Amino acid sequence: MTESDVHTVLSDAFLTVLYASGPIMVIALVVGLIIAFFQALTQVQEMTLTFVPKIIAIFVGLLVFTPFMYAMVKALSDRAFDLIVSGAV
Q1: What is the full DSSP assignment across 22-89?
Q2: One digit per residue, pLDDT tens: the chain, 89 residues?
Q3: Out of 1, 4, 12, 20, which residue is the most buried by the measure of CB atoms under 10 Å away?
Q4: 0.85 exceeded by pTM
Q5: How many domains does the structure of the chain reveal?
Q6: Is residue 89 a part of any domain in this protein?
């Protein structure tokens, strides 16, 4: 296995992590910004107001995006196991 092969495998792994976690991070960011905007407009500074809607949105996002995340991680593991079986590792 050459340095370029290692670079390709690591690059695929990092991109898979970014792509799989991206939708959940975007959901948390958008909900957090909406809540912060609401708090700035109404001057309501309740701590549970920031956490509860964000946690609910993340759980709903996980329910929706779990098949996509599973497909991404499965594809990466299939490529890694194919490299192991072919003897490239």
Answers
A1: HHHHHHHHHHHHHHHHHHHHH----HHHHHHHHHHHHHHHHHHHHHHHHHHHHHHHHHHHHHHHHT--
A2: 788 888 988 999 999 999 999 999 999 999 999 999 998 898 888 878 888 999 999 999 999 999 999 999 999 999 989 988 987 66
A3: 20
A4: no
A5: 1
A6: no
